[in-house]
Amino acid sequence: MIRLQNIRKIFNAGQPNEFVALEGVNLSIGSQEATALKGPSGSGKTTLLSLLGCMARPTAGRITVKGREITSLPERFLTEIRRETFGIIFQQFNLIKGITALENVMIPAYPKGEKHASLKRRAMDLLDLLNIAGKASAKVEWLSGGEAQRTAIARALINNPSIIIADEPTAHLDTTLSREFMEIMRQLKKEGKTLLIASHDPIAYESDVIDRIIEMRDGTIVPPADGS
Amino acid sequence: MGAIEKQRHILDFTLATLGRRKGKNIALIVVYTFVICLMASVVFFADALKQEAAQILQGAPEMTVQRLVAGRQDLIPTHYIDSIRTIRGVQSVEPRLWGYYYDAFSGANYTLMVNADLNNHPGSIIIGAGVARRSEPGKPPQTLRKNDLVPFKTYSDTVVTLQVKGILPSESELVTADLILVSEADFKTIFPIPAGLATDLVLKIRNAKELATIAAKITRIHPDSRPVLREDILRTYAAVFDWRGGVILLILSGGFFAFIILAWDKATGLSAEEKREIGILKAIGWETSDILLMKFWEGTAVSLTAFFLGLFLAYLHTFLASPLLFEPVLKGWSVLYPHFRLTPRINIYQIAVLFFLTVLPYTVATIVPSWRSATIDPDSVMRM
What we know:
The complex is a heterodimer.
Chain A: E1 2-11, E2 19-29, E3 34-38, H1 45-52, E4 60-65, E5 68-69, H2 75-85, E6 86-89, H3 101-106, H4 116-129, H5 145-157, E7 163-167, H6 175-190, E8 194-198, H7 202-205, E9 212-217, E10 220-221
Parallel strand pairs in A: 3-8, 3-9, 6-7, 7-8
Antiparallel strand pairs in A: 1-2, 1-4, 4-5, 9-10
Chain B: H1 2-20, H2 22-57, E1 63-69, E2 72-74, E3 76-77, H3 80-85, E4 90-96, E5 98-103, E6 108-114, E7 124-127, H4 129-132, E8 149-153, E9 159-167, H5 173-176, E10 179-182, H6 184-190, E11 197-198, E12 200-205, H7 211-221, E13 225-229, H8 230-268, H9 272-283, H10 288-320, H11 327-331, H12 348-374
Parallel strand pairs in B: 6-10, 7-9
Antiparallel strand pairs in B: 1-2, 1-12, 1-13, 3-11, 4-12, 5-6, 7-10, 8-9
């Protein structure tokens, strides 16, 4: 489904503070597969997720999503792929403050021009599915950590993406909430979603939801000990 | 349909966004409204004054003939009337006697004019509303009423006392505030005007199209005369009010530029929170054009609110409240300020000019920095 070939990503190229975030990354991710990227801070997990989610372009290398080469696509097309294909759950949740949980869930669908009533109904259904329909009209700054994350998950699902990307999703959650999160991921996987989770939390990457663990260090993928 | 829904969604989101940054946006709208209010007040006020003057001058003579001696206005011989009356198209010619009188009591200059109706009532005067409110500088006004006596100092250093017979209506106060109507006999007691001379002559003309031809004929018969058309007076009034309006606008331009700096700073300086939000919106699937559309609606909402609020306040200030801020400058520097209520009038052209000078630049100013932020890679939000 997603294929990365010889990916290199350099930040501040040519500057004194030039930094190589990824070097020689080759990776294939299958459809409906749950993949965990694990590794210490600075190992390149977030950069790799950004590239996978069409949020940044590699300095060198090729990325194909569903057979389509995306590295040379204009920004407008990348945005469309990002909107239609990926649902992103951020480490800090990145909800927009001052507006309600329901509005936050609806935002990614605004550019699609869907009728307000049907969009609102779908957003409510998602909040209901995640057991926070009661908080739909609450402003996001008043939500607890777990509620905020469920809102972020609902937002990631509003455009019905086939791939869910989660960056350190359990970093701000206690053990119970972390396990609840992984249960939600299990449900999504059952529904046929492809999962990409970057985490250095064992609750996430050691969960039986995960099919494959990719270990990263210093911007490269660490080869599996068994050589597979 | 989808495009309209999209606009609606983005507009809804923009309005919700504006509500969240209440402090910043309210401060911006207050200052913006104030600037629009000041500028619109000047425009409304100058325009209404011109209109007022034009209406009042409707009743003024179509042509006035003066005499020039060495380039200055001089008294005109009344025998000019006979030759002017013979010109085809001239309906009537009347001599006028008027002059300026300095009143040492109030420190004001009055316009004294002979009114034929008073010739049968020597010793009586009719005064303008401004004269009636005369006051000694620094002291409360002493309102003149009917039958009050007013002393006048004559050219021969004697004092003549005249009785107020009436006060001119306030509708015409713009041009009659300082006017005192007297009989010919009293006028000649106060001023040394020899018999057979008048200040100027006023003409009634049958056909307005013949004004220029008649004026040319008068100057041919009397080369020392200067015919002044009513249109010339109106033009002068318009020029004076435009000029005064310009002076005010020049003074206000300092404030206007201060506003531009504030607006530029407020509108263009995206806060870290706003930049973060733009990053989030891009990461979750908004295009650069969607972000710009949102910022366009934001700028439009702020500036239109301030624009219409400013216009409304300017309307109240100009037509319902006495426009305290500009009255002295726009009406004149005379000691006697006219008191009257302006007729409400809106000039669409001037509002359009004001709109293009304020709303458009502000809206553009809000889009430019957002464009810069909106074109960055959305992955920056991953590192927040």
